[in-house]
Design a protein that fits this description.
Elements: E1 22-24, E2 30-32, H1 33-38, E3 51-52
Length: 76
């Protein structure tokens, strides 16, 4: 099951699990659409392809809770 990280690793934009607009690589590095475009859909961490992350219905959040641990680091 996807971790559904809550923010863009590059700029800190919030990326709710139920909303479209997040991009992930096979290691679940997570980026917003703007950053993914600037990165030419290539993960800067592993060089993997960035793909649209599927959404998770809000009704499933209680049973399958998305991550709340931020991934954005201002030193990047």
């Amino acid at each position: 099951m996807l971790e559904m990280r809550p923010d863009c690793e590059r700029c800190g934009t919030e990326l709710p699990a139920e909303a479209p607009g997040a991009f992930i690589c096979s290691f679940e590095c997570t980026f917003c659409a703007s950053c993914a475009e600037e990165l030419d859909d290539l993960c800067p961490n592993c060089r993997g392809e960035l793909m649209d992350r599927p959404t998770r219905a809000k009704a499933l959040h209680e049973k399958h809770t998305p991550s709340t641990r931020p991934t954005f680091r201002s030193d990047r």
